[in-house]
Design goal:
Elements lengths: L1 E7 L2 H14 L6 E7 L6 H10 L7 E2 L7 H19 L3 E5 L3 H13 L3 E4 L11 H12 L2 E4 L2 H9 L7 E3 L3 H14 L3 H5 L6 E5 L3 H4 L2 H15 L3 E5 L2 H9 L11 E3 L4 H10 L2 E4 L2 H10 L3 E3 L8 H4 L3 E3 L4 H12 L16 H13 L2
Bound molecules: uridine-5'-diphosphate.
């Protein structure tokens, strides 16, 4: 029996590990699959609700790390995760995405000589001011096996000198969750709860440090939200980082009464909002992909994206951080000029099945 530990740490990890855990259930005669939650995000709305809604078991290991500076958080995760790896002796550790837990756990396993697989490898924004880009680079240079979601990720890895036989293009596990939970997503009553009509509201999320950490950029963002709010109903589920900064800079009272402000929303309700929005304005990585799969108009308020397929094939438009341009692009969409999009290759709900098949039948043999 082989032992595999998958690591989750923050909100965008849960919907990636859930389908992997489910797919390993087809191999319980060969593989014991365990989940380690570092506790990078730990409150009910950023963590617990996802375990429940994504039908994941309680994590087998919980490291209880919490917040802190990047160095503090990374160091604490490494110290605690090393103990788990030493006592559990896994045959493989799986990390997903690009958060501090992804990188910290990969550094630990690499130094202990434990094989590591990175799911969602090779994505590059080519912007090292983004903490996630550092996490991606470090993780990919160390990981033994790299599972990619799009062709350009594969090319990025090859260009960085990673050998082809370590790379597997299997599709997008985040979309696996979306496909699997679609019937439940459909049943959500969030539109009624918030007094919204399908196709007649804008959904906004913002949490990237480049948009929300300085008073200047956050002030401008509040201006954008207020302008959008005078065109349509706007739902703005506020990430804890953004919420703290709005308070810190005294900007929370500047948000127009037209806006529907909420705490972070649970997975099923959030995807219901995504599916029925007229427009999404975001700086999230995952939301760019989910809106592409659902064919919903998405404007990304960033200067770069590590997920170029959402622009090349999908409905995403990368507008940049000049908010006058963002407002212009939004108004165009609200006037009916929509970007046509398709679904990227292998975003079919079966990525985790492909990954686990390769892990069990090729990598762990
Ligand atoms: N999400 C959610 N509730 C929210 C905002 C986002 O369930 O209020 C989901 C979203 O559907 C996607 C994931 O969280 O599956 C994206 O996480 P986030 O935007 O925090 O991280 P990023 O993808 O930017 O790293």
């Amino acid at each position: 029996m082989k032992k595999i530990i998958s690591v989750v740490g923050a909100r965008p990890n849960f919907m990636k590990v859930a389908p992997i855990h489910k797919a390993f259930q087809a191999y319980t005669d060969k593989v014991q699959h365990l989940i380690c939650h570092t506790g990078q995000h730990f409150d009910a709305k950023m963590s617990e609700v996802f375990f429940e809604q994504l039908e994941m078991p309680k994590p087998h290991f919980f490291l209880g790390i919490g917040g802190g500076s990047h160095a503090e958080q990374t160091a604490k995760i490494m110290i605690e995760f090393e103990k788990i790896v030493l006592s559990e002796k896994p045959d493989l550790v799986i990390v997903v995405g690009d958060v501090n837990s992804t990188m910290a756990c990969t550094v630990v396993t690499s130094k202990l000589g434990v094989k590591t697989a990175h799911v969602e490898a090779g994505l590059r924004s080519f912007d090292r001011e983004m903490p996630e880009e550092i996490n991606r680079l470090v993780t990919d240079v160390l990981a033994d096996y790299l599972f990619t979601t799009e062709e350009k990720a594969h090319q990025n890895l090859l260009r960085e000198g990673i050998s082809e036989d370590k790379i597997f293009f299997c599709g997008n596990v985040m979309i696996d969750s979306l496909v699997h939970f679609l019937p439940k997503i459909e049943k959500s009553s969030i539109l009624t709860q918030l007094g919204l009509e399908p196709g007649k509201f804008i959904l906004c999320t913002f949490h990237r440090p480049s948009n929300v950490d300085s008073q200047e950029s956050l002030t401008q963002l509040v201006g954008l939200l207020n302008s959008l709010g005078s065109e349509r109903k706007v739902v703005f589920p506020i990430h804890p980082r953004t919420s703290n900064n709005l308070k810190k800079f005294g900007l929370d009272s500047n948000l127009s009464a037209n806006l529907i402000l909420t705490e972070p929303i649970g997975y099923l309700d959030f995807l219901h909002l995504t599916k029925h929005a007229e427009l999404i304005v975001t700086d999230s990585g995952g939301v760019q992909e989910e809106s592409t799969w659902l064919g919903v108009q998405c404007i990304t308020v960033r200067d770069n994206t590590e997920r170029p397929i959402t622009v090349d094939v999908g409905t995403n438009q990368l507008i940049g951080t000049d908010l006058t341009k963002v407002l212009d692009a939004s108004l165009k969409i609200l006037q009916g000029y929509k970007k046509q999009g398709g679904i990227p290759y292998l975003w079919d709900g079966k990525a985790a099945e492909r990954i686990t098949e390769i892990v069990v039948n090729q990598l762990l043999r």
